[in-house]
Design brief:
Organism: Nyssa sinensis
InterPro entries: Calmodulin_bind_N, CBP60
Protein name: Calmodulin binding protein-like N-terminal domain-containing protein
Structural class: alpha+beta
Strand content: 15-25%
CATH architecture of the largest domain: Sandwich
GO molecular function, one term: sequence-specific DNA binding
Helix content: 25-40%
CATH superfamily of the largest domain: Macroglobulin (MG2) domain
CATH class of the largest domain: Mainly Beta
Number of domains: 2
Number of helices: 4
């Protein structure tokens, strides 16, 4: 009987001990879990971190140096093929004002208000004047064009199309204009003061004309689009009648 009592007492005691462990609050285990995590993190920082940091820094440094070397090599390779800034622009000549009408043979051709005819070099995209670079001091020629040229108001004619519409006297293939038709731009501006139409009834039968301006210098392949005025009639000053 005494033995049974001891065994039973032991079972009861063990059961109570187990129950006491199971009845411990959940917060105790969470607290111990957090403590363990902090120990692991501190161990990584203090032991593993110092070992990995130099290795990572060396890898990053190597990658950066390799990228810079590739960039420098590419720049050196392309340095010989760099384009001049003027080749990247769309340049064109432009008459700054309309012509003063009527236009008579033997009389100086003027701009509106009796001013000199002004031709400017401009950026074809922005319309801003261009006053630097070799194009801004190029040699230019004033020519006479047929009035039917660019009747559809296109702005993409070719140099060949422009040249084909230049009107000259058949005898000697000379210009219909008197005085010097060649001038040099100065900082992108050229002034035309002395030109006038010659007296010749043969070519006057054509009736409508335009003035044009084109660059004569070879600018290493740079295209400067030609300029042209509006259409106009030329009257014979001697008879003061409109041509027909």
């Amino acid at each position: 009987m005494a033995l049974n009592r001891q065994v039973n007492d032991g079972r009861v005691g063990g059961s109570e001990q187990n129950n006491s462990l199971e009845d411990q609050p959940t917060g105790v285990f969470d607290s111990r879990k957090k403590e363990l995590e902090e120990v692991v993190i501190n161990t990584v920082r203090q032991v593993i971190g110092p070992v990995l940091k130099p290795l990572i820094s060396e890898v990053v440094k190597t990658e950066i140096e390799s990228a810079l070397e590739k960039i420098l090599t590419s720049m050196k390779r392309n340095s010989g093929n760099e384009m001049h800034p003027s080749e990247l622009r769309s340049l064109q000549l432009q008459f700054s004002k309309k012509l003063s009408l009527p236009i008579l043979t033997g009389m100086k051709i003027k701009g509106e208000g009796g001013t000199s005819i002004q031709v400017a070099l401009v950026d074809g995209i922005t319309g801003q004047g261009v006053n630097f670079g070799p194009e801004a001091s190029a040699k230019m020629e004033i020519v006479v064009l047929g009035g039917d040229f660019n009747a559809d108001e296109r702005h993409d004619w070719t140099l060949e199309e422009f040249n084909q519409k230049i009107v000259r006297e058949r005898e000697g293939n000379v210009s219909l204009l008197t005085a010097n038709v060649y001038l040099n731009l100065k900082e992108g501006i050229g002034y035309v003061d002395e030109i006038s139409f010659t007296h010749n009834r043969k070519w006057m039968k054509r009736c409508q004309f335009r003035l044009g301006a084109r660059v004569m210098d070879n600018l290493n392949g740079t295209r400067v689009r030609e300029a042209m005025t509006e259409c106009f009639f030329v009257e014979d000053r001697r008879s003061k009648c409109e041509c027909f």
